[in-house]
Amino acid sequence: xxxxxxxxxxxxxxxxxxxxxxxxxxxxxxxxxxxxxxxxxxxxxxxxxxxxxxxxxxxxxxxxxxxxxxxxxxxxxxxxxxxxxxxxxxxxxxxxxxxxxxxxxxxxxxxxxxxxxxxxxxxxxxxxxxxxxxxxxxxxxxxxxxxxxxxxxxxxxxxxxxxxxxxxxxxxxxxxxxxxxxxxxxxxxxxxxxxxxxxxxxxxxxxxxxxxxxxxxxxxxxxxxxxxxxxxxxxxxxxxxxxxxxxxxxxxxxxxxxxxxxxxxxxxxxxxxxxxxxxxxxxxxxxxxxxxxxxxxxxxxxxxxxxxxxxxxxxxxxxxxxxxxxxxxxxxxxxxxxxxxxxxxxxxxxxxxxxxxxxxxxxxxxxxxxxxxxxxxxxxxxxxxxxxxxxxxxxxxxxxxxxxxxxxxxxxxxxxxxxxxxxxxxxxxxxxxxxxxxxxxxxxxxxxxxxxxxxxxxx
Length: 459
What we know:
mainly alpha
């Protein structure tokens, strides 16, 4: 674990409190924070869909939106390495390592954000052409992706700063700052798109501006604290050992996110080959669908921090109890969410677009897919627990085969035999089921948690 000399700090509820209560106290701010994070693109899609047209919503939430999710997801996964290190060091009471990790990862984030902004502006046309973006949405898609790329810097800084705060048990302040920036994003969207008539350029610019504000807010709170995770500009530096550990732990998690994103991009390419109505409907479904993903990802982030801090503190029994408790809570959430999306989801579509054909296709999508959400639930909890102890390589391999490779093979060999949206969508429950089976086998019989524990993790 942690070899350096420890320093006593105050009572830590994650390592010492009542588990189910602390999980909920930690979970809900992350859930609300994720909700406001998702509102960025949802507000863009809603406003451009209502005031510009279905081509605009296909541009904002179609191919360009998939690229954004792919990039942000990779670096969000990569930053998991820093979150795990901070949570373990913080749980082990190692203040010096906490500080060094924070300054190393923030500097790394600054450099990556600048590089991504430049690359996104230059490569946007080539990427969208490769994705077979429909011709009637190509120009708007390029504009949106290029402008959005300018905001990668703010996006990464905010996400890594929020991850640091969550790693030390503070999930409330990131949520507050997201609420503020999301409100600002909505105001900017309305102004830029409606009275100023700036189109998708205005929608992207509104998001960039809001994300920059949120990055400044989270850096301010890190700088203002007196705890060991205080951020100071003069201490920015690269610790090679910490950077290596961060990449070792975070790179597999980042690649997992890319694999999910890449597989979704492959699905997007498939929809691009069907019709603009299918593309628009899929884009809208993706927005409604985020209700489930917000919750399940919040459970994953919660269990990662709980496992990480308790692993650093050497409290293995609390790790197993946390996993069981989170598993039960997430299963209940999935059942409720599936029911609500099946019944209420179709009523949300007209808020984005009023085209009857798009509404009909979107309704069919919701009714087909939401019943399978429960299959994915355990994947997020188990992988989150493994991330907490730094075990990310085998989960990456499982996802590479069960998600990315399987869906790619499905698109290449099965879709041509029956080229419709149901064939495309079936790749989701199929890949979830196979991946879950592989995760259960690895987690119960071969993972480090199995080696440290009694083997009765999921009873």
